[in-house]
Design a protein that fits this description.
Strand content: 5-15%
Structural class: alpha/beta
CATH superfamily: Aldolase class I
Number of helices: 11
CATH class: Alpha Beta
Distance between the termini: 8 Å
Largest sheet: 8 strands, parallel, barrel
Length: about 260
Protein backbone atom coordinates (compact mmCIF):
# COMPACT_ATOMS: atom_id res chain seq x y z
CA UNK A 1 0.00 0.00 0.00
CA UNK A 2 1.28 3.46 -0.89
CA UNK A 3 1.94 5.73 2.09
CA UNK A 4 0.12 9.06 1.58
CA UNK A 5 2.26 12.17 1.35
CA UNK A 6 0.93 15.53 2.51
CA UNK A 7 2.99 18.49 1.34
CA UNK A 8 2.56 22.10 2.42
CA UNK A 9 3.61 24.43 -0.40
CA UNK A 10 4.16 27.80 1.24
CA UNK A 11 4.69 29.69 -2.02
CA UNK A 12 5.89 33.25 -1.33
CA UNK A 13 4.92 33.31 2.33
CA UNK A 14 6.82 33.19 5.66
CA UNK A 15 10.14 34.62 6.75
CA UNK A 16 12.80 32.42 8.36
CA UNK A 17 11.53 33.38 11.83
CA UNK A 18 7.95 32.52 10.89
CA UNK A 19 9.10 29.19 9.46
CA UNK A 20 10.86 28.35 12.72
CA UNK A 21 7.72 29.23 14.69
CA UNK A 22 5.67 26.92 12.45
CA UNK A 23 8.20 24.13 12.97
CA UNK A 24 8.06 24.55 16.74
CA UNK A 25 4.26 24.28 16.76
CA UNK A 26 4.16 21.32 14.37
CA UNK A 27 6.83 19.40 16.26
CA UNK A 28 5.03 20.00 19.55
CA UNK A 29 1.99 18.26 18.06
CA UNK A 30 4.12 15.43 16.71
CA UNK A 31 5.87 14.76 20.00
CA UNK A 32 5.14 11.25 21.19
CA UNK A 33 3.11 10.44 18.07
CA UNK A 34 3.82 7.66 15.58
CA UNK A 35 1.81 9.43 12.92
CA UNK A 36 4.74 9.35 10.49
CA UNK A 37 4.30 5.58 10.19
CA UNK A 38 1.06 6.20 8.27
CA UNK A 39 1.69 9.47 6.43
CA UNK A 40 4.75 11.23 5.03
CA UNK A 41 5.06 14.85 6.16
CA UNK A 42 6.59 17.40 3.80
CA UNK A 43 6.94 21.19 3.95
CA UNK A 44 8.19 23.30 1.03
CA UNK A 45 9.21 26.75 2.33
CA UNK A 46 10.43 29.65 0.19
CA UNK A 47 14.17 29.51 -0.49
CA UNK A 48 14.98 32.20 2.08
CA UNK A 49 13.27 30.25 4.88
CA UNK A 50 14.29 26.75 3.78
CA UNK A 51 17.62 26.53 5.68
CA UNK A 52 16.08 27.75 8.95
CA UNK A 53 13.13 25.40 8.64
CA UNK A 54 15.32 22.44 7.68
CA UNK A 55 17.54 23.05 10.70
CA UNK A 56 14.50 23.30 12.98
CA UNK A 57 13.11 19.91 11.87
CA UNK A 58 16.44 18.09 11.49
CA UNK A 59 16.26 14.62 12.96
CA UNK A 60 12.45 14.59 13.00
CA UNK A 61 9.95 12.88 10.65
CA UNK A 62 9.26 16.19 8.87
CA UNK A 63 10.73 16.25 5.36
CA UNK A 64 11.75 19.43 3.52
CA UNK A 65 11.35 20.28 -0.16
CA UNK A 66 12.12 23.11 -2.56
CA UNK A 67 9.39 24.88 -4.50
CA UNK A 68 11.43 25.02 -7.69
CA UNK A 69 14.98 24.65 -9.05
CA UNK A 70 17.07 25.43 -12.10
CA UNK A 71 18.37 22.29 -13.87
CA UNK A 72 22.08 23.11 -13.53
CA UNK A 73 24.52 22.55 -10.71
CA UNK A 74 25.86 26.12 -10.90
CA UNK A 75 26.40 28.96 -13.35
CA UNK A 76 25.49 32.48 -14.40
CA UNK A 77 21.75 32.14 -13.73
CA UNK A 78 20.89 35.19 -11.65
CA UNK A 79 18.13 34.58 -9.14
CA UNK A 80 18.00 30.82 -9.60
CA UNK A 81 18.64 27.97 -7.16
CA UNK A 82 20.37 24.73 -8.12
CA UNK A 83 19.50 21.17 -7.08
CA UNK A 84 22.88 20.92 -5.34
CA UNK A 85 22.00 23.98 -3.24
CA UNK A 86 18.67 22.44 -2.22
CA UNK A 87 20.32 19.18 -1.19
CA UNK A 88 23.00 21.04 0.77
CA UNK A 89 20.30 22.80 2.80
CA UNK A 90 18.45 19.58 3.65
CA UNK A 91 15.83 19.27 0.92
CA UNK A 92 14.69 15.79 -0.08
CA UNK A 93 11.96 16.80 -2.56
CA UNK A 94 11.40 19.51 -5.15
CA UNK A 95 8.19 20.71 -6.78
CA UNK A 96 8.46 20.81 -10.57
CA UNK A 97 6.02 22.38 -13.02
CA UNK A 98 3.56 24.01 -10.64
CA UNK A 99 0.93 25.83 -12.68
CA UNK A 100 2.17 29.17 -11.36
CA UNK A 101 5.60 28.38 -12.81
CA UNK A 102 4.04 27.28 -16.09
CA UNK A 103 1.60 30.16 -16.45
CA UNK A 104 3.36 33.11 -14.83
CA UNK A 105 7.00 32.21 -15.55
CA UNK A 106 6.30 30.56 -18.91
CA UNK A 107 7.97 27.23 -18.17
CA UNK A 108 7.45 24.68 -20.95
CA UNK A 109 7.25 20.89 -20.86
CA UNK A 110 10.71 20.34 -22.39
CA UNK A 111 12.29 22.55 -19.71
CA UNK A 112 10.43 20.64 -17.01
CA UNK A 113 11.78 17.41 -18.46
CA UNK A 114 15.28 18.82 -17.89
CA UNK A 115 14.34 19.66 -14.31
CA UNK A 116 13.12 16.15 -13.58
CA UNK A 117 16.37 14.70 -14.94
CA UNK A 118 18.48 17.14 -12.93
CA UNK A 119 16.52 16.56 -9.72
CA UNK A 120 17.04 12.82 -9.95
CA UNK A 121 20.73 13.28 -10.73
CA UNK A 122 21.17 15.08 -7.41
CA UNK A 123 19.01 12.71 -5.39
CA UNK A 124 15.94 14.92 -5.13
CA UNK A 125 12.51 13.34 -5.43
CA UNK A 126 10.42 15.30 -7.95
CA UNK A 127 6.82 16.27 -7.31
CA UNK A 128 5.63 16.79 -10.88
CA UNK A 129 2.53 18.97 -11.21
CA UNK A 130 -0.05 18.68 -13.98
CA UNK A 131 -3.45 20.29 -14.39
CA UNK A 132 -5.87 21.88 -16.80
CA UNK A 133 -7.54 25.29 -17.10
CA UNK A 134 -11.28 25.79 -16.63
CA UNK A 135 -11.68 26.32 -20.37
CA UNK A 136 -9.91 23.04 -21.15
CA UNK A 137 -12.11 21.22 -18.66
CA UNK A 138 -15.26 22.70 -20.15
CA UNK A 139 -14.15 21.52 -23.59
CA UNK A 140 -13.62 17.99 -22.29
CA UNK A 141 -9.84 18.11 -22.78
CA UNK A 142 -8.75 17.34 -19.21
CA UNK A 143 -7.60 13.75 -19.71
CA UNK A 144 -5.70 14.33 -22.95
CA UNK A 145 -4.08 17.55 -21.73
CA UNK A 146 -2.89 16.17 -18.38
CA UNK A 147 -1.62 12.97 -20.00
CA UNK A 148 0.25 15.12 -22.51
CA UNK A 149 1.92 17.11 -19.75
CA UNK A 150 2.93 13.87 -18.06
CA UNK A 151 4.29 12.31 -21.25
CA UNK A 152 6.36 15.38 -22.12
CA UNK A 153 7.85 15.85 -18.66
CA UNK A 154 8.76 12.15 -18.39
CA UNK A 155 10.04 11.73 -21.94
CA UNK A 156 13.08 9.45 -22.01
CA UNK A 157 12.53 7.84 -18.62
CA UNK A 158 12.09 4.13 -17.96
CA UNK A 159 10.16 2.33 -15.20
CA UNK A 160 12.82 3.27 -12.63
CA UNK A 161 11.33 6.78 -12.49
CA UNK A 162 8.38 5.29 -10.62
CA UNK A 163 10.57 4.48 -7.61
CA UNK A 164 10.91 8.16 -6.65
CA UNK A 165 8.32 10.12 -8.65
CA UNK A 166 5.38 11.88 -7.01
CA UNK A 167 2.71 13.44 -9.21
CA UNK A 168 0.42 16.28 -8.13
CA UNK A 169 -2.81 16.79 -10.06
CA UNK A 170 -3.72 20.44 -9.56
CA UNK A 171 -6.56 21.73 -11.73
CA UNK A 172 -5.59 25.35 -12.38
CA UNK A 173 -9.14 26.56 -11.83
CA UNK A 174 -9.06 25.21 -8.24
CA UNK A 175 -5.75 26.70 -7.07
CA UNK A 176 -6.23 29.55 -4.62
CA UNK A 177 -9.82 30.08 -5.72
CA UNK A 178 -11.64 28.33 -2.91
CA UNK A 179 -13.33 26.19 -5.57
CA UNK A 180 -12.11 22.63 -5.36
CA UNK A 181 -12.68 19.68 -7.65
CA UNK A 182 -14.98 17.10 -6.13
CA UNK A 183 -13.32 13.95 -4.84
CA UNK A 184 -14.96 12.00 -7.67
CA UNK A 185 -13.66 14.46 -10.29
CA UNK A 186 -10.16 14.30 -8.80
CA UNK A 187 -10.24 10.50 -8.71
CA UNK A 188 -11.39 10.35 -12.34
CA UNK A 189 -8.45 12.40 -13.61
CA UNK A 190 -5.91 10.82 -11.29
CA UNK A 191 -7.16 7.42 -12.38
CA UNK A 192 -6.44 8.45 -15.97
CA UNK A 193 -2.91 9.49 -14.98
CA UNK A 194 -2.41 6.13 -13.25
CA UNK A 195 -3.53 4.34 -16.41
CA UNK A 196 -1.04 6.35 -18.47
CA UNK A 197 1.74 5.30 -16.10
CA UNK A 198 0.67 1.67 -16.42
CA UNK A 199 0.69 1.84 -20.20
CA UNK A 200 4.11 3.49 -20.19
CA UNK A 201 5.87 1.54 -17.43
CA UNK A 202 3.75 -1.47 -16.50
CA UNK A 203 1.33 -2.12 -13.66
CA UNK A 204 3.94 -2.92 -11.01
CA UNK A 205 5.97 0.23 -11.55
CA UNK A 206 2.92 2.48 -11.91
CA UNK A 207 1.43 1.22 -8.67
CA UNK A 208 4.47 2.59 -6.79
CA UNK A 209 3.79 6.19 -7.84
CA UNK A 210 2.00 8.38 -5.33
CA UNK A 211 -0.40 10.87 -6.92
CA UNK A 212 -1.55 13.84 -4.88
CA UNK A 213 -4.52 16.12 -5.38
CA UNK A 214 -3.97 19.86 -4.97
CA UNK A 215 -6.35 22.78 -5.23
CA UNK A 216 -8.12 24.40 -2.24
CA UNK A 217 -7.51 21.38 0.00
CA UNK A 218 -8.65 22.05 3.57
CA UNK A 219 -9.19 20.09 6.80
CA UNK A 220 -12.89 19.93 5.90
CA UNK A 221 -12.42 18.17 2.56
CA UNK A 222 -9.10 16.31 2.72
CA UNK A 223 -10.66 13.04 3.93
CA UNK A 224 -12.85 12.77 0.84
CA UNK A 225 -9.84 12.98 -1.45
CA UNK A 226 -7.61 10.61 0.50
CA UNK A 227 -10.34 7.96 0.66
CA UNK A 228 -10.23 7.62 -3.13
CA UNK A 229 -8.33 4.55 -4.41
CA UNK A 230 -5.81 6.42 -6.61
CA UNK A 231 -5.25 9.55 -4.48
CA UNK A 232 -2.21 9.20 -2.26
CA UNK A 233 -1.90 12.60 -0.66
CA UNK A 234 -2.36 16.32 -1.10
CA UNK A 235 -0.32 19.32 -2.19
CA UNK A 236 -1.64 22.01 0.12
CA UNK A 237 -1.45 25.76 -0.33
CA UNK A 238 -3.17 28.19 2.02
CA UNK A 239 -4.25 25.63 4.61
CA UNK A 240 -0.65 24.46 4.86
CA UNK A 241 0.48 27.85 6.12
CA UNK A 242 -1.18 27.32 9.48
CA UNK A 243 0.39 24.65 11.66
CA UNK A 244 -2.91 23.79 13.33
CA UNK A 245 -4.76 23.11 10.08
CA UNK A 246 -1.82 21.21 8.57
CA UNK A 247 -1.63 19.07 11.69
CA UNK A 248 -5.36 18.38 11.47
CA UNK A 249 -4.97 17.13 7.89
CA UNK A 250 -2.01 14.95 8.84
CA UNK A 251 -4.10 13.33 11.56
CA UNK A 252 -6.89 12.67 9.09
CA UNK A 253 -4.49 11.14 6.57
CA UNK A 254 -3.05 8.82 9.21
CA UNK A 255 -6.47 7.35 10.00
CA UNK A 256 -7.44 6.43 6.43
CA UNK A 257 -6.75 2.80 5.60
CA UNK A 258 -7.29 1.71 2.02
CA UNK A 259 -7.51 -1.86 0.82
Amino acid sequence: MRKPILAANWKMYKTAAEAQAFATELLANLKGQALQDDVEILVCPPFTALPAFAQAVKGTPVMVGGQNMYPKNEGAFTGEVSPAMLVAEGAAYVIIGHSERRQIMGEQDAFLNEKVKSALEYGLKPILCVGETLEQRQRGETADFCQGQLAAALDGFGPEICDTLVIAYEPIWAIGTGVNASSDDAQETIGVLRQWLKSAYGDGAADKVRIQYGGSVKPENVEGYLAMPDIDGALIGGAGLVAESFWSMLQTAATIKKA
